[in-house]
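1st attempt posting a full record on here, be nice pls
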Amino acid sequence: MHERTRTFAAVCVGLFLTILIWYNYSAVLPQVSDDWGLSGTQAGIVFGAFQAGYLVGILPLGRLSDRVSPRYVVAGGAVGTAAFGIAFGLVADGFYVGLLLRFLAGVCIAGVYVPGMRLVSDWYPPERRGRAIGIYVGTFSLASGASFLVTARIASTAGWETATVVTSAGGLITGLLLVVVAEDAPGRTGSPSGIDLSLLGNREYLHAVNAYAWHNWELFGVRNWLLTFLIAVPAFAATDAPGAVAGLVVGVVTAMSAVGNVLGGTLSDRIGRGTTVGVGLASSTVVVATFGALTALPFAAIVVVLLVHGALLSVDSAPASTLVTEAVDDDQVGAALSLQSFVGFVPSVISPVVFGVVLDASGYTFAWVTLAIAGVFGLWSVRSLRRIRRREASPA
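the predicted structure (as tokens):
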């Protein structure tokens, strides 16, 4: 097997195994909330703690992947993620301990996703990078869906504690894969310099980051709260096992984002990054704004709407990240992706909490509207991106 293919496979498999932890808390949120007596706001804060930890770790660990081999950064981050995730299932007994352990797991997982993307970027030239990053990001989505499916399934028979331990342990295997199987791209050298502040003057880069940030506002709000919402929907509540059925549906819907990522990455190689980002943002925004009306629909209709939204939700993700790799010099890709991820994940800390606050105050219909506002702001950046690209393409 070619070194590039072997490394790409190892990175994707490792990402899948490690990302199983990301939504295992969301998959058992109803059980955890009942056991710990969490309010909607507290439940959102525990989820947000994982995102906050990611934000703390992403800049230093992403920058480290520019200085040293990113595969070692991924390996270390994956093992640390597994350790704190397993501890959550074994020792967490309330809001504060759960908050701390999810935060620490989030810090460690910052060493997995972006450094892994840096490694993929090293191996693939620009003309093939969109599809490669689409598959990589699609693996994240596939793992996210599997997290709901596997966690909910195990929790229904063995309890949420066992479920979170099992779905956190994959990072231990990832560490081995990245050290033993993966390789650095030929000719890659580390860069000792810090983050180039000229990034902040790169308008194309900044608009790509902003579009990505609003994408995350919607995505993480949906993924944290969808399962809990579906359990309260009459069509799901009428089933024999609402929690298990909701977990299955959310898992499949989340996995559908893998289709959206690959489609978006491939499409952006053909019709342009900005156009693809705009299509993804606009379409997912329109659908999520209608989620409050799902309570009146039959089971089959709800599933169809959710599957369509699951695919649309991630069409813009891979093109936005590919834009970042193309807008900067090769030795700054890790730093640029890290800064993008840092800025882009700030909304992922806030939106689940805002959703929970509005849910406590006004119910689900208005809570879903708080996620739909993302598209309005994201599309402004898409419009600016397309204007910049047209200006660059026009003759002087």
